[in-house]
Amino acid sequence: MLHILRRDPGRKRKVLIVEDSEINIHYLTVIVGREYDVICAANGQEALDALRMQPGNVSLILLDLIMPVMDGYEFMNEFHAHPEEYGIAPVIVLTADREAEVESLRRGAADFIPKPLDYPEVILARIERSIALEEDSRLVRNNERDPLTLLYSRNFFMEYVRQFDLTDPEVPMDAAVIVLNRFYMLMDIYGRQFIRKVLKAISDELHRILPETGGLACRSDPGCFLMYLPHREDYDDICSRLAAIIRDVTGNTRVNIHMGIYQNVLKSLDAEQRYERASLLCYDNKNSYKTSCYYYSDEVHDKEIFNERLIMMMDTAIREKQFVVYYQPKYVIQGKRPKLHSAEALVRWVHPDMGLISPGIFIPLFEENGLVYRLDRYVWSEAARQVRLWHDKFQKKIPVSVNVSRTDIYAPELENELSDLLTLHSLDYDDLLLEITESAYTDDSAQIIETAKKLRDKGFKIEMDDFGTGYSSLSMLTSLPIDALKLDMSFVRKMLDSPRELKLIRLILDIARFLNIPAIAEGVEKEEQCNLLKEMGCDLIQGYYFSKPVPPEDFEKLIQKELEAA
User: Which end of the chain is less crowded, N or C, counting CB atoms within 10 A of the terminal residue's CB?
Assistant: First the structure.
């Protein structure tokens, strides 16, 4: 006997009454029907049949224990054993036997309503409470785990990390981050199913690792996993194992991971800070296309703090002119004697408390954070002002090369900014030479070439800096708008000891002659280097052989010396 007395799933939750007494069915239907849609079954088998027809749509089951065909105990065994077939719902047992309550709890009952049935408001209150507890529990279950990997979700993971620390505060713990490198690019290229396969391969291996370690893991972001493990030393092995599994599953060697480890975490840090530290080097090396394992250390932390201080101090440094522009001379070496031709502007940071800060530290930092845009403009302005001062003082044109970074190339007002600067100081377009590194051309050649052409059309001279370290093709060189090639100093330093480097220098000089533009060698420190470069036809050189980068007042001595020798 199966009765469906009320069905309104759009408005009310469903309650299944499993009872063989017609009197009790009627009584419960009247009471429960005030708030819920009611389905009735006369025994456990009928109840299972009803649940099988609509798994997951029943919010609660009121269950008698003593029934024909299938009693309440047998029903609970079958119901709880097959949630995928019948769904999940709390069971309230209807019984007058107090001893039956213990056995019912063992079989999964959530609550009891004593017989004889009485007090309608108590019945409704118990039903409401059991449904609310189950729905809260289901919400927790649904949000506790990532559905693809079945690892914890991030929020639950962080809470379990805190609970772990409270339970075992003395256990040394490690925070580990696994990042699938270039996640969104891989998804665009290979598709969502490919990415799901990779993520599942990683998570399956983590599920194997966790029982060994007694640790926790979660999928934190789409392409990122976190682990919290008792301290261990084999993370390089884990990283290699994961990389091998990804290769086996995908057959693709271009899919790689970065793993960041913060060992023996400082537990006074909150969980989020620990994983910020663990992931720090992963993201610092995000452009590396090789599977790697990185270890966080106090030195890394100190460097990060120092870098943050530099970033925060930049505004003050510009305002107080802590950045000092030095000038390294370039000399024409063809002819009877070397002649001062021009200079390169090189910035130094002289901090009032920290002293001289190396440009090898702050320039890459500012490039990474986009702040080099402001520093470049400061240097351009200082250099233009200095060129004007020297012209007025010595009546001699000393062009100065300034760096134009990749960030500057994308500035919409770049041409106008530079032109306005020349106008402000009454300079010609060839007074301020623009250096663009070779690697910038290869990053986005179309954009760089277009910008460089516009600048040359204005009248600016473009020098390609660090030539030979990037990947410019010979065909690309014919279309690049450049007025000079600067040999990277690494070639010059090795030229006396390496026939290979010497041949490369000859080749670059031949390219410059083919393009009918001057070649500039930097990093020249020895007379033998200078003589050999002159013999090979190099036009200009700069380096410690003539002078290190010097402040303006010292550079003026070089100008004066040149005027006296002329």
Answer: C
